[in-house]
Specification:
single chain; 225 residues; alpha+beta; Aminopeptidase; 9-stranded mixed beta sheet; globular
Length: 225
């Protein structure tokens, strides 16, 4: 599952807690690292920046920074054949390395890796929407951030896991005061629209992107008074 596969290229949050998701009975654990700010993906072991346990389904979602040394071959294996057929694996991984090295130096996008019960499950990028190509399709505001999600194809049929990933990412990204809305663009053939809606996203519009039709979903911050 992919919201998009372009691979284009925070201040410390002052925030309260957000409404707990019904799947979860534990408080959210967050390490308030910087969002959309130059970082290093070179560490051999990246520690979780956000972790949530979903008691009813007995799994833990952990989000950490991308690790160039270990994650790129995994990401390559998740990409659809239409994205990998033009280059041999080693060449494609070198290309991914160059792309994510540029992202590491960027101040408009950040890349993370998601594990469920310590098993590699997904990769997610978050972009400041006003500096992303999605801003060509709607009037982006300063608090808008776009997320792009790539899930292991062998695990994407587990809808509880997909929902848990989305909800954990929402909790993490909305913990930064500058994030007001999250935007997701789905390819027309993607089947996770219902999962997005369960996570609180609403369908905003149908858009025409280069070579494809897509749907734009959005959700806003929800704070418990």
């Amino acid at each position: 599952m992919s919201t998009s596969l372009n691979f284009p290229f925070a201040a410390m949050a002052t925030t309260g807690y957000f409404e707990a998701h019904p799947m979860s009975k534990s408080p959210l654990e967050i390490d308030r690292t910087m969002l959309c700010k130059p970082v290093s993906y070179a560490a051999v072991q990246q520690h979780p920046v956000c972790k949530r346990y979903f008691q009813s389904n007995q799994f833990t979602v952990a989000v950490r920074l991308l690790c160039l040394g270990t994650d790129l071959p995994v990401i390559y294996n998740w990409l659809p054949w239409r994205f990998t057929r033009f280059m041999k694996k080693d060449a494609h991984i070198r290309h991914l390395n160059e792309t994510y090295t540029c992202i590491a130096d960027s101040s408009s996008v950040q890349s993370f890796f998601v594990q469920i019960n310590e098993v590699a499950t997904a990769q997610v990028d978050i972009h400041h929407a006003m500096q992303d190509d999605v801003s060509s399709y709607y009037e982006a505001k300063p608090g808008d951030y776009r997320i792009q999600l790539l899930i292991d194809p062998e695990k994407e049929s587990n809808h509880e896991w997909s929902l848990g990933i989305l909800q954990t990412c929402q909790d993490f990204f909305f913990s930064f005061a500058e994030v007001e809305r999250l935007v997701v663009v789905l390819d027309e053939e993607s089947n996770i629209g219902c999962t997005l809606e369960k996570a609180g996203f609403t369908l905003e519009s149908q858009i025409i992107m280069p070579g494809k039709k897509a749907r734009m979903f959005r959700c806003g911050r929800k704070i418990v008074a």
